[in-house]
Write a structure and sequence with these properties.
Elements (H helix, E strand, L loop, with lengths): L3 E4 L11 H15 L3 H10 L1 H5 L6 H11 L6 H18 L6 H10 L3 E6 L4 H5 L11 E4 H4 L6 H11 L6 E5 L5 H7 L4 E4 L17 E2 L5 H8 L6
Parallel strand pairs: 1-2, 1-4, 2-3, 4-5, 5-6
Pfam families: Hydrolase (PF00702)
Protein name: Haloacid dehalogenase
Keywords: Hydrolase
């Protein structure tokens, strides 16, 4: 079998962070950076697209730039502390939701090749090798490293090309945030909405008429019908 599944990360394999959780960490970080907590939390939110596209550099550069945007001049020690706190937040987020690892192992046991295509800031690629996902995925495409954010076709194609498979043999599975489903479908990838308990509640999926699942455990039967096997 020569078929692959491209998975989204947040809201699909792990719960996404809540705004409350993120802002709380931002306010704590503001104290070590010596900046106004509300302005800094707002700047972190506003910089989401730039951070996901890697426009602010690595994590220390990002923390320094965000502090400077709200009037700060942080010391190297302050930036280092901010980096540690952001990494601690990311570590808490990168734990698989219940049942996810079992579902991934079942898919791999049936011959599926697994890849990750995620919009994320610099923390995720820094921590990826520490996670329980790393050994289960053949490759991972991080927007902050690639420089292209879903639904930009280059985000999906980076994985498709690396897998050396046609788009029709690569399913995309995600919770639909950032218009990622339409972006995948436009490239000819069989696309599935993961409408699970951890899906981003703000994802606009009301117009999606394609396949959907309520659990990753439902994927094997559905994908056997949707995804072409290049070996057949």
């Amino acid at each position: 079998m020569t078929r692959a599944i491209l998975f989204d990360l947040f809201g699909t394999l792990v719960p996404g962070d809540t705004g409350v959780q993120r802002d709380e960490v931002s306010r704590r970080i503001s104290a070590v950076l010596g900046v106004d907590p509300e302005r800094f939390a707002a700047e972190v939110q506003a910089s989401r697209k730039d951070r996901f596209a890697g426009h602010l550099g690595d994590l220390p550069e990002t923390m320094r730039t965000l502090a400077e945007r709200v009037g700060g001049r942080p010391s190297p020690a302050a930036v280092d502390s901010a980096v540690r706190q952001r990494l601690a937040l990311a570590r808490r987020q990168l734990h698989p939701a219940p049942g996810v690892l079992a579902a991934l192992d079942a898919l791999r046991g049936n011959g599926w090749r697994l890849a990750l295509v995620t919009n994320c800031s610099a923390e995720v690629p820094m921590l990826w090798r520490e996670t329980e996902f790393a050994d289960r995925f053949e490759l991972a495409v991080f927007s902050s490293t690639l420089g292209h954010v879903k639904p930009d076709p280059r985000a999906y194609l980076a994985a498709v090309v690396a897998l050396n498979l046609p788009p029709a043999s690569c399913a995309f599975v995600g919770d639909g945030a950032s218009d990622e489903l339409a972006g995948a479908a436009a490239l000819g990838l069989p696309t599935v909405l993961a409408d699970t308990a951890i899906a981003d509640p703000w994802a606009d999926t009301g117009s999606w008429t394609g396949p959907r699942i309520g659990s990753l455990a439902d994927l094997p039967a559905l994908l056997d019908e949707l995804v072409a096997d290049e070996d057949r």
